[in-house]
Amino acid sequence: MGRLDGKVAIITGGAGGMGTKHGEFFIREGAKVVVADLESSNGQKVADDLGENALFVAFDVTDESSWESLVNKSEEAFGPVSILVNNAGIVKQNSIAETSLEEYRQTIAINQDGVFLGMKYVLPSMKKAENGSIVNISSVAGMVGGTANLAYTASKFAVRGMTKAAAAEFAEFGIRVNSVHPGVIRTPMTEQEGIKEMVQEMAKDIPLKRIAEPEEITNLVLYLASDESSYSTGTEFVADGGLIQVM
User: Fold this and answer.
1) Which of 35, 38, 87, 177 is the most exposed place for a label (fewest CB within 10 A)?
2) Where are the annotated coiled coils located (predicted)?
3) Contact, 34 vs 77, CB < 8 A?
4) 23 in helix, strand or coil?
């Protein structure tokens, strides 16, 4: 038996990076997976690679009607949703003085508004399933402040707080809500020009002396999605190699 047998999972930002790794592990553990992403060509390829128990849905994480359509298509294909991984996100490194209002609002819309909309629109489906687990991907930047990433930090602190509020509100329905706070992970995002150099320097100060591999975070997300974490809700789960202990 798989750890996610009989469960239907939506993974936002599922067409690349950590989202793809989550999908691979979820399928392996018996879940039916909806890969949700704005990136249509790659998203369809990811779903095809995952096999018959995966579906790609093109959607915009910041758009309400897109969320409503995503949940409806998920139910039509596989039944009520029992897992939501709010994984979609962006990061732009800039000083406060050099961050435009447009850049700030874009980060908030994707990283924060997208999480709110996901929790709101998946709730009726999880009520049908009579249980559920929502895993909101925050960051160590949602635990401590840092330079040159105010918009990202603001959005990730918000995700942490919204997780706690939703956990309190959804508990009566048997729905758990937790946040995951990764440190530095080896993904396409951290390989971006201008970010890669900063990441390499940061790795020197991590107590474990390395950045995380994607599967190290996915294993934590998988645990929270599964019934193994049945008594955990409203909690931050940090996986950062000890980074915030020295920040």
Assistant:
1) 38
2) none
3) yes
4) helix
Tens-place pLDDT, residues 14-54: 999 899 999 999 999 999 999 999 988 899 999 999 999 99
Q: Does 99 reside within a domain?
A: yes
CB atoms within 10 A of CB 7: 26
- In a domain? residue 232: yes
Could you tell me the pTM of the whole model? 0.95
CA-nearest of 15, 24, 21, 25 to 46 is: 15
Tokens read off for 168: 């309190």
Distance, in Å, from the CA atom of 168 to the CA atom of 172, rounded to the nearest integer, reads 8
CATH code assigned at 100: 3.40.50.720
* 121, 152, 223, 231: the active-site residue: 152
The reply to whether 152 belongs to the active site is: yes
Q: Total domain count for the chain?
A: 1
- Residue 246 belongs to some domain of the structure: no
Give the orientation angle of helix 150-170 with respect to helix 114-129, to 10 degrees.
20
Task: Read off the pLDDT of residues 176-228 as tens digits, 9 standing for 90 and up.
Answer: 999 999 998 887 767 777 778 877 887 888 999 889 999 999 999 999 999 99
